[in-house]
Design brief:
heterodimer, A: 230 residues, mainly alpha, 2 domains, 9 helices, flat, B: alpha/beta, 6 helices, 10 strands, globular
């Protein structure tokens, strides 16, 4: 491990650390976790039925892959997550930008969306099944429901945070307001937008497991739920 | 420049004798909601090519007056004329350089300067590139053309913004404390450069600052404002 540089120790408040130290620290963090896990099982702190050892889990994973269970179901879940996520993004990004760009559109939509986004997704599972049956549409709908209304408001906030100076600079360089959407608004908000989308993608994973546990015969959620009984 | 306005308007007491009003404030007032920013009607004649500094304490309304030239705010009463035509919304004839968020962080230095011509339909891509190169040279940033604003100093970022606005070739250059956030040495360098560039280009320039030394160094003429609501305390020609 690389020792403290001339600028001081590795524990100096808010100071940069060498790249090598970052990599070593990251591996050490993961190793500590695995070590603690292994130790808890080895010392019989918890019965193996509740917490199997890392090696047992790795073997089970290998078996599931060999049996052709893990990968096909993972691909199904990934497909659902990405379909719903892209559907959310495709509608939420332009709509969120419009809501901030044209405040009257924001005033029209925001209270409604703000209400809907607090509806708990699991509570809408029965309704989704009545509407769409137990096919793919139900899962996509539930994932979309859980992410779209959050994402659109985050996009609107990202757009609102773009400094007015950027737009005003563009105006005094001859841009029309609508021309600043692609040339100023989008590039200026892109870092925050990526962050918002990343968070949404994470939520999709939460909801896909719920959807597959309740209303599916495939996917990782289904596998987890059916294996829990065996 | 053209004499589109005669000197017949006797309400314009501020026009220097015998000079044409290129840019004219006509009894301009500004109120934001219930808050008067410019209460006393403000009138001013600015001849073409003059470097005018609006000097005054923070929040005195000098920035608002300049923003109204740019069309970024509109007068509550009165009007502003550029070559005899009332100014409307913002356009490429009145370029603005801000104190903060002046250069676009998502574009390289060269692309920032080219952005000044982004909305001009009368130039080819090659022409824009060449012109950007010229102004990059002028502000001494040719070696940093491919750098991004996050990789250069604050002073360089302001120079990027100035080059971008110059590249757009506005009739009037508006600058809102563009060197306000810079340290003293850098400020002096940039003031010197700006003065040179302005003389070379002959662009009518309105420069807002609260720094007396900066005002005296840069200006052909200084309008001194009292505190809010804006009042003109003095209108001084600076001999250089």
């Amino acid at each position: 491990m690389s020792s403290a540089s001339s600028s001081g120790g590795l524990l100096r408040f808010r100071s940069a650390v060498p790249r090598a130290a970052v990599v070593v620290a990251a591996f050490l963090g993961a190793a500590t976790f695995l070590g603690a896990w292994w130790l808890i099982v080895a010392l019989h702190v918890v019965a193996p039925i509740f917490l199997p050892s890392p090696a047992t889990v790795a073997r089970a994973f290998w078996t599931m892959c060999a049996d052709g269970v893990a990968m096909p179901n993972a691909l199904i879940s990934i497909g659902r997550v990405w379909s719903a996520f892209l559907l959310s993004v495709l509608i939420a990004v332009p709509l969120g930008i419009l809501m901030s760009g044209y405040r009257i559109i924001g005033a029209f939509l925001e209270p409604l969306i703000d209400f809907i986004r607090y509806l708990p997704v699991p509570a809408l599972v029965p309704l989704a099944i009545i509407w769409f049956g137990v096919g793919e549409e139900t899962k996509i709908f539930l994932l979309w429901l859980g992410t779209f209304f959050q994402l659109v408001l985050m996009v609107a906030a990202d757009m609102k945070r773009v400094p007015g100076e950027y737009f005003e600079t563009a105006y005094t360089l001859g841009a029309k307001p609508h021309e600043t959407l692609g040339t100023v608004a989008l590039p200026a908000m892109l870092p925050q937008l990526m962050d918002s989308m990343r968070i949404s993608l994470g939520w999709c994973w939460t909801y896909v497991i719920i959807a597959e546990i309740v209303a599916s015969d495939s996917g990782l959620g289904f596998v987890i739920w059916t294996r829990a009984g065996s | 420049m053209s004499n589109t306005l005669g000197n017949t308007d006797n309400s314009m007491g501020l026009a220097p004798e015998g000079q044409d009003a290129y840019l004219r404030f006509e009894s301009v007032t500004k109120t934001f909601g219930a808050v008067p920013v410019v209460q006393e009607p403000f009138s001013l004649d600015i001849p073409a090519g003059q470097f005018v500094v609006f000097l005054g304490p923070s929040g005195c309304g000098k920035t608002t007056l300049m923003r109204m030239i740019g069309g970024l705010d509109t007068p509550s009463s009165g009007r502003i004329l550029l070559q005899g035509q009332p100014v409307g919304g913002p356009d490429i004839r009145r370029g603005m350089v801000f104190q903060s968020y002046s250069s676009f962080p998502w574009l390289s230095v060269r692309k920032n300067v080219e952005f000044g011509m982004r909305f001009r339909r009368d130039m080819t891509k090659a022409q824009k590139r060449e012109r950007a190169g010229y102004f990059l040279d002028l502000v001494g940033l040719a070696d940093f053309a491919n750098s991004y604003p996050s990789r250069i100093s604050g002073g360089m970022r302001q120079r990027v913004a100035i080059a971008r606005t110059l590249a757009a070739d506005p009739d009037v250059l508006l600058m809102d404390e563009p060197f306000g956030a810079l340290d003293a040495n850098l400020r002096e360098d940039l003031q010197y450069e700006l003065r040179k560039i302005q003389k070379k280009s002959g662009k009518t320039t309105i420069f807002v600052t609260h720094d007396v030394e900066e005002a005296v160094f840069l200006a052909d003429r200084i309008i001194v404002f009292g505190s809010r609501p804006a009042r003109v305390m003095a209108d001084m020609d600076i001999l250089s």
